[in-house]
Each structure stands twice: as structure tokens, then as C-alpha cells.
Automatic annotation (TrEMBL):
Residues 374-443 form the Lysidine-tRNA(Ile) synthetase C-terminal domain. GO terms for molecular function: tRNA(Ile)-lysidine synthase activity. InterPro entries: Lysidine-tRNA-synth_C (IPR012796), Rossmann-like_a/b/a_fold (IPR014729), TilS/TtcA_N (IPR011063), tRNA_Ile_lys_synt (IPR012094), tRNA_Ile_lys_synt_N (IPR012795). It is found in: Cytoplasm. The keyword Transport does not apply. PANTHER family: TRNA(ILE)-LYSIDINE SYNTHASE-RELATED (PTHR43033). Ligates lysine onto the cytidine present at position 34 of the AUA codon-specific tRNA(Ile) that contains the anticodon CAU, in an ATP-dependent manner. Cytidine is converted to lysidine, thus changing the amino acid specificity of the tRNA from methionine to isoleucine. Its EC number is 6.3.4.19. Belongs to the tRNA(Ile)-lysidine synthase family. Its main location: cytoplasm. Keywords: ATP-binding, Cytoplasm, Ligase, Nucleotide-binding, tRNA processing. This is tRNA(Ile)-lysidine synthase. The keyword ATP-binding applies.
């Protein structure tokens, strides 16, 4: 099977060879993404999906403007829809700029796939990228499950994230691009061997490929075998869990100890993950297993992290949330936001700003580095909320329109940024923020407590 046939097969597997389907193509103007775009354009019209080209000008290099201008002209000439956004220099962090750039880029792709109702975002990751990822994870260490490489497809926002070029080597993509007369731009930073991935790219992978020309194929084979092994393990654990847990999802210590020793940690890990929605590394579960097996401690408590603890009694172990002291906010004061922490702001409202959705009703909200620190405070007469159309609305008007009783209006709190701009009228309305200007996305969450409740309802 030729690489082009494999490319088509991958698209067909994701049901993307359909002119009624829309896909977003992430294009950086490098050889990989330009080759991907060309491959898609050359599909027969009866198979070619509707294409939307997505490009982020990261403003990280002098030629960024040139690349954006070239792609704009290319899409005009090829009658392609282009969605372009900028990551302004003022929003660049001082450290971790690669991770921040990736977060900005994928947030942009996620917003596009949602707005356009596209079926997938396509990226040009290839076999060399897969090998580099494997080697980086091997060097870093961790659980076997963490060694899983780049997936050919995975869920992404309202669609899929698909990498149809994982069977292509970097050399094959370059040869294809040259044969098709494709114009592309080289990223000078890719030659900087001070970066770990670039050292692997320019030194380690070529050495291993020279040692064995089939190296990239072997990595792909290992990836497939590992995926199958992990799937089999998941199925086995799914069958074992009911044999060691009660209807109330408590772990029966005796039954768990009767499992073969090689299955005890994987089952324990799965039980903890299921009960806390938190990933635990098997490598760090040794002390937990020892505590479970310790007959000298038939009862007791063991903290797992800042959020969860285990309680043991009569041979049963339960997962329980740690009771946290919740900050109370007096109506006349401001209070700094503690990221990833619940904070009580009124007698019945508990709120939080989280890096991951804390509740199904959590609201994703884009922030910039200039927004921090955030604060909770009572609303004020001159407070305004940004509207999507570009205008503003007074918080007072919002409360009137929503028929909030006069006696309760004074209790309403707002979330403000470092410039005292209102981001959220808690329980009533969010300010509109252009998603593409954000450097990160947080989740704003609200839950209610009983008036007399000393503890949060969970």
C-alpha cells in the first residue's frame, strides 16, 4: 500500500472522504502541513471534504508575517476558506512559551470546530513526530500507559482531532512536496538543538534510522501493540472490579488481596480513578497498597491528595472527599481568587476558578496574562458587563431585568480582573471575551449551599 493510499484509508476510517463533510486543516506553512493541504486538495471531488484552512500567527519569528501573507494569497488563489488569528507578543509568557503557544493554537482550533460544526481538525503529525514523542516519554519515565504515542484520532471539542500522516516519514513528505512543486517555509527554531525535541529530531532519530532503516516502522508497530495491550488490560480490569467492590463502590480488602499480585495495582488504580475522576500513577500507589494490606491498621484514614482520602473499617475501604475550610467573604471586602479552590462568597453561593471543569455546568472563560490576579467583590454602581455585540450593560440593569429583589441585589458578587473589569456577575451573567485573544482558558463554577450548612453539598 502506497503512502497516499494509507492517507486515504485513514481519512476513510474517520468517515472524512465525503464532500458533505467539513474539515479544518491546521497549516503552519511548514513542509508537513503544506503537504497535508496539497494531499487534501488533490483528492477526487467526489471524495474531497470541504476545507477550512486554520493558521495562527504566533509572532515568534521575523518571518511570521511573511508566512501569514503567503498563506492568505495561497488560499485566495486556490479558493480556500482561511481562518487566521494572531497571538500578540504582549501576551507571550516569559517562560514556557512553547506550551503556551500550543494551548493558544488548540484553543483556537477548538473554537473553530465548534463554530463551523466541522467534523474534524487535521494536523500534519508524521512518523518522525511519533518517534520523537516515544523517545521523550521513555527518557521521562512513568507508567506504561503514559508511553502511548500520538493517536491517529481522538475526540476534540465537538468533533475529532485526526492525524492522517502518521504512516509518512518526514523524508516522504518532503519528497512529495518537492515532486508537487509545493512552496513551504522552514522554521529556523527547528534547528535549535538546545531544545530537547530538536536534539532528538536532528541527532538521535537519524542515528537510529541509520542503524535500522525500519526504525520508524518499528515505532509504529510498538504503538499499535501497546494500544492493543492497554485495551486488553482495560477489559480485564472492567471484569475484575465488580469482584472486589461493593454496591456502594467500597473496596473489599480481602477480595482485592486475593487477586494475582500483578493485577492488584492496576485494579487499585482503576478503582481510585473511577471514584475520584483523577489519574493516579501505579508507580506512586505502593504506599497505598501497603496501607491496605497492613493488618496492624484495620481502621484509619489515608490522604490521597488535596481533594480525596481513603477511610478503612471492617475490611472495607471507601473514597471520601477531604473537607476543606472554605473562605468566607464579608459583603464589604475584596477577596483574591485561589485557583482550583472553592470559595464561599455569600451565605448560599460557593464559587471557583478552575483549570479543569469542576462541574458539568462550569463555564469556560478565556483569560489573558494581564487579567491576573482575579478577585471576588460586591458589585458597584459603575460596574459594566461586556456584550458580544461590542457594547456594555450595567450590572444594575442586569439585576433589574432578571427581576432580582431589591433586598438581594446588595448581596450579588462579581468576579473582576486586575484592572477591576467585571468578568462575571455571579449567578447572573458572564462578560463576553473574544476567545482568540486568550492565553489560557479557565472554568468558572458555581454551586449552592443550604443557608445553615456548615459543609458544602457535594
Amino acid at each position: 500500500m502506497t503512502p497516499i493510499q494509507q492517507f486515504k484509508r485513514q481519512l476513510a476510517a474517520q468517515q472524512l472522504l465525503d464532500p458533505e463533510v467539513t474539515v479544518i486543516v491546521a497549516v503552519s506553512t511548514g513542509v508537513d502541513s503544506m503537504a497535508l493541504l496539497t494531499l487534501l486538495e488533490q483528492l477526487p471531488s467526489q471524495q474531497r471534504p470541504q476545507l477550512i484552512v486554520a493558521h495562527v500567527n504566533h509572532h515568534l519569528r521575523a518571518q511570521s508575517q511573511t508566512e501569514a501573507a503567503y498563506l492568505t494569497k495561497y488560499c485566495q488563489q486556490h479558493q480556500l476558506t482561511l481562518k487566521l488569528t494572531d497571538w500578540p507578543v504582549r501576551l507571550h509568557p516569559k517562560t514556557g512559551i512553547e506550551a503556551a503557544a500550543r494551548q493558544f493554537r488548540y484553543t483556537f482550533f477548538g473554537q473553530l470546530i465548534t463554530a463551523t460544526q466541522a467534523a474534524a481538525v487535521l494536523t500534519a503529525h508524521h512518523a518522525n513526530d511519533q518517534a520523537e514523542t516515544y523517545l521523550m516519554k521513555l527518557a521521562r519515565g512513568g507508567d506504561l500507559a503514559q508511553l502511548v504515542g500520538i493517536q491517529a484520532a481522538r475526540p476534540f471539542y465537538t468533533g475529532q482531532l485526526v492525524r492522517p500522516l502518521l504512516t509518512w516519514s518526514k523524508g516522504q513528505l518532503r519528497e512529495y512536496a518537492q515532486a508537487q512543486g509545493v512552496t513551504w517555509y522552514e522554521d529556523a527554531t527547528n534547528a535549535d538543538v538546545e531544545l530537547t525535541r530538536n536534539r532528538l529530531r536532528h541527532r538521535v532519530v537519524p542515528e537510529l534510522t541509520q542503524l535500522n532503516p525500519a526504525f520508524l516502522a518499528h515505532v509504529a508497530s510498538y504503538e499499535q501493540q501497546l494500544q492493543q495491550l492497554l485495551m486488553a488490560q482495560t477489559e480485564m480490569i472492567r471484569g475484575l472490579l465488580p469482584t472486589v467492590t461493593t454496591q456502594k463502590k467500597q473496596l473489599t480488602v480481602d477480595a482485592w488481596q486475593q487477586l494475582p499480585s500483578s493485577w492488584q495495582l492496576p485494579v487499585l488504580q482503576a478503582w481510585l480513578t473511577q471514584g475520584t475522576d483523577t489519574q493516579f500513577s501505579q508507580l506512586k500507589l505502593g504506599p497505598v497498597a501497603h496501607w491496605l494490606q497492613n493488618s496492624q491498621l484495620p481502621t484509619g484514614r489515608l490522604p490521597l491528595n488535596h481533594d480525596w482520602q481513603l477511610t478503612k473499617a471492617t475490611g472495607l475501604v471507601a473514597i471520601q472527599p477531604l473537607k476543606k475550610r472554605v473562605k468566607k467573604l464579608r459583603p464589604v471586602e475584596k477577596n483574591m481568587v485561589d485557583l482550583n479552590q472553592w470559595q464561599k462568597i455569600t451565605a448560599t453561593q460557593v464559587v471557583g476558578v478552575f483549570e479543569q471543569a469542576a462541574l458539568p455546568t462550569s463555564q469556560p472563560f478565556p483569560l489573558t496574562d494581564d487579567d491576573w490576579p482575579l478577585q471576588w467583590r460586591p458589585w458597584q454602581a459603575n460596574d459594566l458587563v461586556q456584550l458580544k455585540g461590542g457594547g456594555h450593560q450595567k450590572v444594575r440593569r442586569i439585576l433589574i431585568d432578571q427581576k432580582v429583589p431589591v433586598a438581594q441585589r446588595a448581596l450579588v458578587q462579581v468576579l473582576v480582573n486586575a484592572h477591576d473589569t467585571v468578568l462575571w456577575v455571579v449567578g447572573h451573567k458572564f462578560s463576553y471575551r473574544q476567545p482568540t485573544t486568550a492565553t489560557r482558558t479557565v472554568f468558572l463554577a458555581l454551586k449552592h449551599t443550604e443557608l445553615k450548612g456548615a459543609h458544602l453539598k457535594r
